[in-house]
Amino acid sequence: MTKNVGNIDRIVRVVIGVLLIIGALMGYGWWMWIGVVPLATGLMGSCLLYSLLGINTCKTG
């Protein structure tokens, strides 16, 4: 998979993902498990939705 998620975008995704998962573990709602998605895309550096929309926040060098 081609990397299309930049460094700042990755950091934000990981932080949001972790916070949502912590909220789910604390019992704030089962829907907070959606945090797995931004966490996974942040760790992998690739986002399917970005690919479909033609978005690339990763610097090419």
TrEMBL record:
The keyword Transmembrane applies. Residues 1-60 form the Inner membrane protein YgaP-like transmembrane domain. The chain crosses the membrane at residues 12-31, 37-55. It comes from the Bacteria. Pfam families: YgaP-like_TM. Keywords: Membrane, Transmembrane, Transmembrane helix. This is Inner membrane protein YgaP-like transmembrane domain-containing protein.
